[in-house]
Design a protein that fits this description.
This protein is mostly helical. Among the domains are: about 100 residues; about 60 residues, no CATH class.
Length: about 325
């Protein structure tokens, strides 16, 4: 009973710490968004405990980076993380690999500590599974965050086209219009326009720059913008008329999406209910018989079956969303 109480206390402390970190992250994001409209306060050089921990951790990652960069395998694996680096961020792709390894080691220590409290020994197979869970946890977060970021960019594309079109109407050049959009637009699309502006300053052609932009975010409106500018650059024409046409097209598309969203509210609710039902059943069974699922966590075969269940549920959720999704 005492071991269960200690485990419960540790889990509660970890949950409180995670919730505190998430709230601090949200608060810092709101502060950055509001700061551009607020009067500059009196500067205070003191840093909070959380900022101090983050600073020390970043310094720790920078120290390890020197050794990680010497290993060719890690340098090769880190290339796919270049798309997650934001404009002005000093993070390097190799830092993502370092963070993944650190998270994996933390997960292993937590598992060993938890089993030690229960007077159990973690087998090698269990440690490998825990290591891979910790290693790919950051990838899951990055993919989810990237999807959310691309969704925001897709919603902000119409505003970006309107700002650029107004700049063209006032006689600005393409690079000046991109600079105005980068300064006027909110995050995260402003990061992409800052990258476009830097590419154009380095001398890349307009069609090449926007083609790279379309490949980075991979959305239909960006591809449409890139192809329109490529045709305009090769055949010539009035850029104001082209952007006015793109603006009307995106406006009509957004209007249609809003109408479809209102029409598919019931189907989205069905998806949410079908995804929640398995968790409800598992919770009810656990409350009625807490020992029912213990074989899944006490043997390698049980852990394998548990992983298989998780994979099947993810496939079930994916297929369900594909069936219910309506494309514009």
């Amino acid at each position: 009973m005492s071991l269960m109480l200690i485990q419960l206390v540790i889990i509660v402390i970890l949950l409180i710490f995670i919730i505190f970190m998430l709230r601090q992250n949200v608060a810092l994001g709101k502060e950055r968004r509001i700061a551009r409209y607020a009067i500059e306060p009196i500067k205070n050089d003191e840093i909070s405990v959380l900022e101090n921990l983050i600073l020390k951790y970043n310094n720790f990652v920078k120290k390890i980076r020197k050794y990680m960069e010497k290993i060719s395998l890690f340098s090769l694996l880190s290339k796919k993380y270049e798309k997650y680096i934001l404009y002005g961020d000093k993070t390097k792709p190799i830092d993502f690999i370092t963070n993944k390894l650190v998270i994996s080691i933390i997960f292993i220590f937590i598992a060993i500590f938890s089993n030690t409290l229960q007077n159990k020994v973690v087998d090698l197979f269990g440690l490998l599974i825990i290591f891979f869970i910790g290693y790919y946890l950051l990838d899951i977060y990055l993919v989810i965050n990237q999807k959310r970021r691309i969704k925001l960019i897709e919603n902000q594309m119409l505003r970006a086209i309107i700002i650029m079109n107004n700049a063209f109407k006032s006689g600005k050049s393409t690079i000046q219009a991109v600079e105005i959009a980068a300064n006027e637009l909110p995050q995260p699309i402003s990061d992409e326009f800052h990258k476009i502006y830097l590419d154009m300053k380095y001398g890349l052609a307009i069609d090449t720059v926007f083609e790279r932009f379309a490949k980075r975010i991979n959305i239909e409106s960006a591809r449409y913008l890139s192809s329109s500018l490529t045709i305009l650059n090769k055949t010539g024409g009035n850029i104001v008329n082209v952007f006015s046409s793109i603006e009307r097209t995106l406006f009509d598309k957004k209007k249609l999406e809003e109408e479809l969203k209102n029409l598919t509210v019931s189907s989205n609710m069905v998806i949410k209910v079908l995804l929640v039902i398995p968790f409800i059943f598992v919770s009810i069974i656990y409350l009625l018989n807490p020992e029912y699922f213990s074989p899944l966590f006490s043997s390698p075969l049980g852990i394998l079956i548990l992983c298989l269940i998780i994979v099947m549920f993810i496939a079930y959720a994916f297929v369900l969303q594909k069936i219910m999704k309506v494309k514009v």
